[in-house]
Write a structure and sequence with these properties.
Length: 446
Amino acid sequence: MEESLIPKLDNRWLTWAAFVEETKRVGYLAGPMVVVTLSQYLLQVTSTMMVGHLGVLPLASSAIAIALATVTGFSVLLGMACALETLCGQAYGAQQYRKLGIHTYTAIFCLILVCIPLSVLWLNMGRLLVFIGQDPLISHDAGNFISWLIPALFGYATFQPLIRYFQTQSLITPMLKCSCASLIVHIPLCWVLVFKSGLESIGGALAISISNWLNAIFLSLYMWYSPTCTKTRVPITMELFQEFREFFHFAIPSAVMVCLQWWSFELLIMLSGFLPNPKLETSVLSVCLNTITTLYAIPHGIGAAASNEKEVVDYVTTMAPLVCVSVILDSLQGVLSGIARGCGWQHIGAYVNLAAFYLVGIPVAATLAFWLHLRGIGLWIGIQVGAFTQTILLAIVTSCINWEKQVCHPFSKSCIILQLSCGCLCSCQRFDKKNNIGWINLKNFN
């Protein structure tokens, strides 16, 4: 469990055999994590697909609601939970196992507190949509849908810190089993709530809420009763309140970096509501967004299941080439963004995302959609211009990294972050008790 992913470094270029071996090691963890992440997102996709069978209006309103829920809630909680990648990684790397459990409890408590004002906002989301000029019918249905997602918000606040807790210790199997189990339960549950209970579109939201809590409950039970968590399992005490300041110190910049990118894509759904025929445009944009999130593995299935409406399916077919471009750009920026976070340059990543999407992508999208009348296609082209700009800027940042300095300088922040980012796979080689930090001396690794 503490085997290093980083091979022994020397002055020679890495050989092909070393590259293949390193790829296997990374893939051993990355493969299951892809399944975990995809299983979580498929909860929303499944609900959207089933609600889509009810018609264009339910699909459009649920798409708006999920987009708003992501922008104002889920992305914020996910970004803040990323602080544990630093805090838990440091604690585990320094073999301060008790600290790992305390950080996790602190994060859960802090995120639940954040959920309270977010819930108030969600309860008034329908009126807010009407106020900013959205279609009244879509606004009303979207407001009802997002209100039933409030329990999902609290479940998500509990679930995301637990994910980091297990990830830090390389305990991938419990996450994989719990996520898949929740998805398996979610599919028939959503079908019953949408089509058999009379709740219709609201049933899709309720199914997401129940499944999110199932994820949190499954992982909590594993944490409390599994012998693999013995070292890091601690009782809940008042000590968790002492960690508030440190948690928010890392949580706020992490949330900014994540949210700036997420918001730009979800803003497309919002802008589509101002186009002519907003039901059609919003439905198509939601299908395309779901498609790129699932890496275009099931685009036809999503497009066909999202509606019985031939117009929607035909429009999605027209957008398919642009979606393919999105998949390529998203793959590149995902790797480059990970490198920036690994080097402790979240603030640089935030500036890059701000410039790429909000100074370039969104203005281009609005110009193409509303001024040149390209509608949804214009919105999608614009946001991909932003994604291309982001990829170029992150590539430039990556090319400027001094890798030897990153991994070898013992007191550099980025060196510490490298240790923290892989803290689930390796332990500190040295530890500074005075400053409560640990770092890696890579030359000691075999």
